[in-house]
Design a protein that fits this description.
The complex is a heterodimer of chains A (346) and B (338). In chain A, strand 9 and strand 10 form a beta hairpin. Chain A has three domains: 80 residues, Alpha-Beta Plaits; 143 residues, Sulfite Reductase Hemoprotein, domain 1; 55 residues, Alpha-Beta Plaits (2-Layer Sandwich), CATH 3.30.70. Chain A is of the alpha+beta class. Helix content of chain A is 27%, strand content 16%. Chain A has a six-stranded mixed sheet, with helices on one face. In chain A, strands 1-2-4-3 form a four-stranded antiparallel sheet. A two-stranded antiparallel ribbon of chain A has the order 8-11. Chain A is built from nine helices and 14 strands. Chain B has 338 residues and is of the alpha+beta class. The model of chain B has no long low-confidence stretch (mean pLDDT 96). In chain B, strand 8 and strand 9 form a beta hairpin. In chain B, strands 3-2-6-7-8-9-1-10 form an eight-stranded mixed sheet. The chains are: A alpha+beta (346), B alpha+beta (338). The interface between A and B is medium-sized, with 33 and 30 residues.
Chain lengths: 346, 338
């Protein structure tokens, strides 16, 4: 059997542990798809795969157990799903499957189509981003979540987008019940204080979660017409140094975020280590090399942030160092109490 | 007199009314809802007929026209006090039959329950009412059971049917204005709801003994005492007072009255640190029996008008009509206690 594994992977198929057997990876930008495509996925899994489907970590589907020789047929069958999920196919003919796999599925929590806490339509924004960044071979993870609860765990992504609303108080509708203050204190950051019977908001503390709006029985608190976002940067998992993304911008707007993402692609394409294994390098490691200043110079090019936006500085990451953890658990012991020796320190 | 008016003609009529009246009507606030990308319909002063929401039910009631959520009564500075200016104009309120029936209840408490309330009276004085017809029952309303579906003490009624305003006007002067505007005479009666999906039955022998029933216990945990049911209610009249001091020496400030809720913490707080009805089930009992028993004993008719807004808004899906319909069982349960 002769198969170009580089092309195979780029076509969103996987080299599996089972020789000659691949699996097909289906993108679902924003995590919503019409139920009819589930039937199509079932059809592919039963006809070409082993009858099982894996729900991937990034809201896609992986159809395992497909023999290499069925790839063309699977690609043809995927066309309907590719059309239905509105995924760009630039670089491929119709029926040839996905044109790239490096940039991962743009995933999102269920968002304001369903969730009362979500501050925006996460799926729609995810789909907008997908249209801008896909296809691309660079290993990018963009994740969106509706509110600072961060159910989608955006702080583990290269670019994390967290929904915010700027709450507005109509004092004439406030009946001093205290529900907003209680909600903010118990569920959020305690940014509200009762001053002369009415809540006073500490804008510095406020994270724009909207708990005050949801709690208010009289619509004294309402949401801003404009939607805002917290952008987090360069979270990652992995074998070297997993770490949480840090705050980059508070009260960013949608257009700025799109521009920032494009910029980060340009930066990465420019500075990526050409010898990186499989052409994959987490952007964070590149930033470790070039320095944050250089990264920010690229990231903020042609970005026009709204007046309300706050940019965090300096940006510092720590996280877990598996080999030499300087931060937590820097001594280890066996179950019998003997200390584990770190020979690398000697 | 009945008329059919197009948008232009109705707009002329509204313009004429605006000369003398401040017009309050349900209005849709785009993006003004509690949750992201949702709208809110609530009362506001409107300038054009297009702002009047004639289809969707308002989440909050007409009462904001006469009982603002928060109202400053007077300002004070040491030994001097100055009353706030009353409304400059009289009001015309667009409202549905349930709310029009609620006007009587509100008046009962503020005007005919001892001396008339000065601050209420100055807003209520010369108020006119425009009845919005109901082409079909709303989801949670039970106006037919509460006999509030046929309220007819309106000055004119309005139904928006196929882009035309169908009006039944009872004021001679306004009839003239409608004619001048070019509205066409027609046989018009407001649309009425004669059957609701929700029906309630209040037991004939309902008594305070039902307070001993176990029916209230479930609300200890189900209810979150947020008070939404009270704030949206067109017949809830409770308020509390706030003396607000602007400065450090506490000599300058204002006195406000602010809507209050028998479901919210603090309502039963008394001097000395006492607090009654601490459990939410007890608060639900109090509210229910005030709405369908206590008020009737005092004034001879039911307080609740069955608008169903409390059901519409309850975040915990507690249905007030369902509570009313369980009073029968509650009575059965406690009758054995005699």
């Amino acid at each position: 059997m002769d198969i170009n594994t580089k092309q195979l992977k780029k076509n969103a198929f996987r080299v599996t542990k089972n020789r000659g057997i691949t699996s097909s990876r289906v993108r679902v930008p924003g995590g919503f798809l019409k139920a009819e495509y589930l039937g199509k996925i079932q059809e592919i899994a039963e006809k070409y795969g082993n009858g099982h489907v894996n729900l991937t970590a990034r809201q896609g589907f992986e159809i395992p157990g497909i023999p290499f020789e069925k790839i063309d047929e699977v690609n043809a069958a995927l066309q309907e799903i590719i059309d239905g999920t509105d995924v760009n196919q630039t670089g491929k003919e119709r029926g040839e499957g996905y044109p790239a796999s490096g940039t991962r599925n743009v995933s999102a929590c269920v968002g304001n189509r369903v969730c009362p806490y979500a501050c925006y339509d996460t799926t729609a924004f995810a789909q907008r981003i997908e249209k801008v960044i896909f296809p691309n071979d660079l290993h990018f993870k963009v994740v969106l979540t509706g509110c600072p609860n961060d159910c989608q765990k955006v702080r583990m992504a290269d670019i994390g987008i967290m929904g915010m609303t700027e709450p507005h108080l109509d004092p004439e509708r406030c009946i001093s019940c205290g529900a907003c203050i209680k909600a903010c204190r118990s569920k959020s950051v305690d940014a509200l204080e009762k001053v002369r019977f009415r809540p006073q908001r500490d804008a510095y503390k406020c994270i724009g979660c909207g708990e005050c709006v949801n709690a208010c029985p009289n619509l004294a608190w309402t949401r801003s017409q404009k939607k805002y976002y917290r952008v987090t940067l360069l979270g990652r998992t992995g074998k070297k140094n997993p770490r949480m993304g840090v705050d980059f911008i508070k009260w960013a707007d949608e257009d700025s975020i799109i521009q920032i993402i494009k910029n980060v692609y340009d930066y990465t394409a420019h500075y990526i280590n050409p010898d990186s294994p499989g052409g994959k390098e987490h952007i964070g490691y590149i930033v470790d090399r070039t320095g944050t200043e250089e990264f920010l110079k690229w990231a903020l090019k042609d970005v026009h942030l709204p007046e309300i936006a706050e940019v965090y500085t300096p940006l510092n990451w720590n996280g877990i160092e598996y080999a030499h953890n300087k931060y937590f658990g820097n001594q280890r012991y066996h179950a019998d109490g003997t200390i584990v020796t770190d020979f690398s320190e000697k | 007199m009945g008329y059919i008016a197009d948008r232009e003609q109705f707009s002329d009529f509204i313009d004429k009314l605006k000369e003398a009246y401040e017009i309050w009507a349900p209005k849709k606030f785009k993006g003004g809802g509690r949750f992201s990308d949702t709208d809110a319909v609530r009362y506001a002063v409107i300038e054009s007929p297009d702002e009047i929401e004639l289809n969707e039910k308002s989440a909050y009631s007409w009462k904001e026209a006469v009982l603002p959520p928060s109202e400053t009564l007077f300002y004070f500075a040491e030994n001097h006090a100055g009353e706030t200016e009353g409304p400059a104009k009289k009001k015309l309120v667009f409202l549905r039959s349930c709310d029009l029936a609620a006007v009587k209840r509100m008046d009962q408490i503020y005007m005919k329950n001892g001396d008339p309330d000065y601050y209420y009276e100055r807003r209520r004085r010369d108020m006119a009412f425009a009845l919005i017809g109901c082409s079909e029952s709303c989801e949670n309303g039970f106006c037919v059971s509460m006999q509030s579906n046929m309220a007819d003490n309106y000055d004119f009624s309005v139904d928006l049917v196929d882009g035309h305003y169908r009006l039944d006007c009872k004021k001679d002067e306004w009839n003239e204005w409608l004619k001048t505007a070019g509205a066409v005479s027609a046989d018009v009666a407001p649309q009425r709801v004669t059957e609701n999906k929700v029906k309630v039955n209040i037991p004939e022998d309902l008594s305070y003994k039902v307070g001993m029933s176990s029916m209230w216990d479930q609300y200890d945990s189900r209810c979150i005492n947020c008070g939404r049911c009270n704030f949206v209610c067109p017949t809830c009249t409770c308020f509390t007072m706030q003396d607000v001091y602007y400065d450090d020496n506490g000599k300058i400030g204002e006195r406000r009255r602010v809507q209050a809720s028998c479901m919210v913490d603090g309502y039963t707080d008394v001097a000395g640190g006492g607090s009654y009805r601490q459990k939410n089930g007890q608060r639900m009992r109090f509210k229910t029996l005030h709405k369908v028993l206590d008020f009737k004993e005092r004034f001879g008719y039911q307080m609740c008008v069955g608008c169903g807004r409390c059901d519409d808004i309850c975040p915990e899906y507690i249905s007030f009509s369902n509570i009313i319909n369980h009073l029968e069982d509650g009575m059965k349960e406690v009758r054995g206690n005699d």
